[in-house]
Design brief:
about 25% helix; elongated; 3 helices; 2 domains; Umud Fragment, subunit A
Amino acid sequence: MGMWFILKESVKEALPKAAGVAKGFCFLHVTGRYLCNIDYLTGPSMLPTFNLNRDNIALAETISTRLGKLRSGDIVSVRSPEVPTKIVIKRIKAVAGDVVSYAPDPKLPHHNNTLVVPKGHVWVEGDNPHDSRDSRQFGAVPYALICSRLFLVLWPPSDCRLLSNKIV
């Protein structure tokens, strides 16, 4: 009987603490999924917008994405259409109905293609056209693959700033 009593008392003591931890994780999940989250930026595709001599950390919001309020110039995190487990950071260059003229290979700028971005899609490109895999290679991206819109660089502190939506 003594063992059951100790076990019962331990469970009574641990249950409220476990419930508090579970509530905390639920809060973090809901906040990250439906309000804002943090994105880590690596790779050269968004030079010169991001200083990639060190890792950049940006704050991203998901409300604009869910409400369909994204526009040309916004920097977004997108689930890669080629590697669905990978999230990439790109700038929206055109939205549904816009006409896009682009060079599939930046080394051959005279070979241009033109298309109209289909409904429910966006055209995304990196700010560094010579080192970015983007819509020029895989085409317009379905709106459903957009995860969030980046709006504030948090790290490094010397680069802390609001992000512009001006197309580079």
